[in-house]
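Worked Example 4.2. Read the sequence first, then its structure tokens.
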Amino acid sequence: MALAWINTEPNTLKTFVANRVTEIQSLTQPHKWLHVPTQDNPADLISRGQSTQDFLESSLWKNGPLWLSQDSDMWPQFPLIKTDVLEKGPIRTTIVSLTLIISNPKKQAEIFVECLIEKYSSLRTLKHVIAYCQHFIKNTDLKNKKQRSLSPLSNEELDAGIIRVGGRIEHANIPQGQKHPIVLPHTHHITTLIIREEHIKRKHAGVQATLYGVRESFWPIDSRNTTRRIIRRSVRCFRVKPRGIDCIMGSLPEKRLTYSCLFLHVGVDYCGPFYIKEKRHRNRGREKVYVSIFVCFTTKAVHLDLVYGLTTEAFLDSLSKFFSRQGKAITVHSDNGTNFVGANKELRDLYEFIQKTKHDPDVKKFLSNERMNWNFNPPSSPHFGGLWEAPVK
């Protein structure tokens, strides 16, 4: 079967076999490929099974067949029998007969221009080709050869039969193309070339930036959808903008799903800075302040308080006012801000001091029961704390 493939034209085979036969025929000559009988093929010893003792005593595996050391005239010859190859692909024969008769020269010119436009994929090349065609048509109408030239086309020649956008900015001090852009159909090949060239000129910018550049001289119909469709087909933009990975979200904390009192479990964060001006002092400059945000885990209620700095003392004052108004929280969550870490350290030192000092047993028991737990986000984990980061927006 393999010899039949090698001696067959690749275009009549299926794609998988044809690719390999083409490579074999390009590197070697088909008539040099011969058939090795089964009894002389060492590979069959393994594929068909053999005992270990017979395999070790076999000289065929070590030295090969006996005729291999003789002249090529003594090698076994097997004539190739022509058979139908199963891997042959379907042969399709299509006969197309097309006769186009156009009696209207104007219609014939329009068809020629459409075919010329569809032929090129670069707007710059198409401009040069159309310019040379226009010069050729212009020069053929001139009988005097001295008057023929390849000078640039005039604006009147270029604007012949072009539809432009109207408006009331005729007297504006801007170029004519910006005052009255050329209207482009959204499905035409010229529109695709113009948008593609502007997209490449702007270093593969997005839809909005590309559209701004196009509208400086042209006004495509359904421009946004057309620009989005062309940019989506750009191979380079597709490669540098891969599809994001959809991460599986973790389960919500238990404190978010259980009923509890208001502000019993809270998260805290800062936002700012803001600038305020005090009225107690005349000609006083503006002062920088911040806002501390406390968010309830159960109800998502928000408590705001003004803080006059990022120090630990300022935050402890804000925390005391929060506890006085909303009640004491059992659990507080925050990021690893220095003021939060400092406040936690001071509260922990105060708790340890109270535990070591001799106080009334009832007071000591009350303070021990009311101890507050402070939980910090893991370092370098911006995806933590979304509940109290959202109000900062």
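Now turn to a second chain, presented in exactly the same format:
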Amino acid sequence: MNVLKAWILPQVILGKSAVFEFEYPSNMTVLHATDDSKCTVLNGTCKETSSTCEGLYKPSLCAGHVNRQCCVASSTYDTIECTGNHRHHARGTAYYPDPSPEEGGYFDMRGFPLQTLQAYMKGMAPFVTVAMDSHPGIAYDTPVCIPELNRKYRKFIDFRVRDTGGAFQGKKFSRIDIYVRDRHDSYDGTINGPLTLFFR
């Protein structure tokens, strides 16, 4: 059995946001896309993750169940060690689903659900939400590559700057907050350490 986290909109349950976990059979169909066009535009191929991929598997670009993902060449998307025109050194922290102002809730700066690192690693999220200072010209949904975390998990992780907060004002590129599953995961030593940020 696997665990599926489902977002329940605020108005549905007692006027508050909530996250519920449901167990579901491993062969259950979980639709990530209505077709394979998002994969083919990257010159990728949709296939079972049990099959060999001469590159990287990227979730949420193929129709079908959770283990049917897009195989793209490493040069098409990115590599574990990261490439980019702009590199910065930052101190990492983590936040998690919680209604308190300190943790920031469940939705990003534009009202879309925050995506956790753990959901991404299970192929259940298209990217990982991170929060940074919005003032130095970092646009919403800007991709950022973090080699320290790619090495830890032995795969490329698609981090996206989609959130911010008062704690980041004036920090520019020196702080990054990574969205994780729960409080326990927020204590991860690699996340809460020096990180290198690559921007294209």
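Notes for the reader: The helical segments are 37-40, 74-77, 117-121, 147-153. The two ends are 39 Å apart (CA to CA).
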